[in-house]
Amino acid sequence: MRLIIPKISNFYHVSLYVCDEFISTIDALQVGEICSTHRVLDKLLLKYLQYGSMPSWNKNGSACFSIAMGIDSIPGVNTLLQSNLRILYLFDAWPDKHTRIEKIVKHLKIDLLLVSSSQSASMLQVRLPRTKVLFCPEACKVEEYKCKPLIDRKIDLLQLGRRYEPVHKALIADSGLNYLYQKESGSLTFASQDLLKQGFADSKLSLCFPKTMTHPVESGGVETVTNRYFQSMASKCLVIGKAPQELIQIFGYNPVVELDLKDPLGHVKKILDNITDYESFIEHNYTILKRDHTWLNRWLFIRNEIKKLS
Questions:
Q1: How many domains, the chain?
Q2: Does 150 share its domain with 288?
Q3: Which of 23, 102, 221, 226 has the fewest CB atoms lying closer than 10 Å?
Q4: What's the half-sphere exposure (Cβ side, CA atoms, 13 Å) at 159?
């Protein structure tokens, strides 16, 4: 069965690098056809699908695998509708979107739904008994990330995206700490993916917390591992903060140094003073990441699931 992978064209946002990394991995394997999409058409079709299924389209005998950041930005909706086998991979599947995800998946008649949160996968499987729903965590394209020796890195601590405010306020109290973070909500710490990779490569510590801590109401109680943890390890940063239980489960151990929330600044200083003591731990994280948590690993898992349905 011919495999088609739609890719968003003529539009770019920094968040789409996750999709792009995965699609480029699949493309390099030459296992399917990457097709361009029409954003306006996709939006119109998704709006229609809120209210019911589309009329029958002529099937082309293909399988369509669409990778989307969220349920409102699915690329290649028309391609999905023309395919005999329909696979959708969603990165953002928070509980407040589950009702909408349920409607769209039912109306699109998705055969296999993959989501990057194990808790959301379980919740959505209950809502979607006719669709196979599986947990497929995010990953990264390890070879595209840069690394420097720890002693040559200029940034002491990097925190990208969502901040855990109690810890953040404690850290900014020390003007001697070279701490890089998002200045305003919605702003970008790095303007491009290349600059982001350079920033990771120049950082000793990467501060990561799950959304259940930074935005507990928005998370709906769902704790999941995001791409930021994988990017940090691919850049050989020491990840500090809090590990989601999912991350511990898929690694088989905790790859994060759990930060002392009672004295975060003191703990960070102690780690920085003894940073070379963590080199073997950083290397071990990198080895496990490269072995088990690349986009190639995720594709091999998904390919096997597609074969079961073909």
A1: 2
A2: yes
A3: 221
A4: 26
Write out pLDDT tens, residues 161-178. 889 999 999 999 888 999
Residue the block writes with tokens 């990057």: 116
* 241-266 per-residue burial string, b: 16 or more CB within 10 A, e: under 16: bbbbebbeebbeeebbbebeeeebbe
- On whether both 74 and 168 belong to a single domain, the answer is no
Task: Tell whether 132 and 212 lie within a shared domain.
Answer: no
Integer Cα distance of 161 and 4 in angstroms: 32
Q: Which amino acid, one-letter code, is at 66?
A: S
User: From CA 277, how far away is CA 269, in angstroms rounded?
Assistant: 14
Which residues are within 8 A (CB) of 259 and not within 5 positions of it... i.e. 6 or more apart? 167, 207, 240, 241, 242, 267, 268
CA atoms within 13 A on the CB side of 71: 23
Helix (H) or strand (E) holding 283, with range, is helix 279-292
**Predicted local confidence at residue 187, as pLDDT:** 66
| Domain extent at residue 10 | 2-139+294-309
Whether 157 and 123 map to the same domain: the answer is no
Q: Which amino acid is present at 9?
A: S
Q: Quick one: 80 exposed, middle or buried, by C-beta within 10 A (0-12, 13-18, 19+)? A: buried
CA 188 to chain centre: 17
Is 160:140 a contact under the CB 8 Å cutoff? Answer: no
For residue 191, give every residue at least 6 positions away whose Cβ sits within 8 Å of its Cβ, in sequence order, or none: 14
Ordered alpha helix ranges (H), 244-278: 245-251, 264-273
Distance of CA 217 to the CA centre of its chain: 20
In this structure, the answer to whether residues 154 and 279 fall within a common structural domain is yes
Check residue 78 and give its pLDDT: 92
**Looking at the structure, do residues 10 and 112 belong to the same domain, yes or no?**
yes
For residues 161 and 231, is the Cβ–Cβ distance under 8 A? no
**Is the domain of 287 the same as that of 301?**
no
**0.90 exceeded by the pTM?**
yes
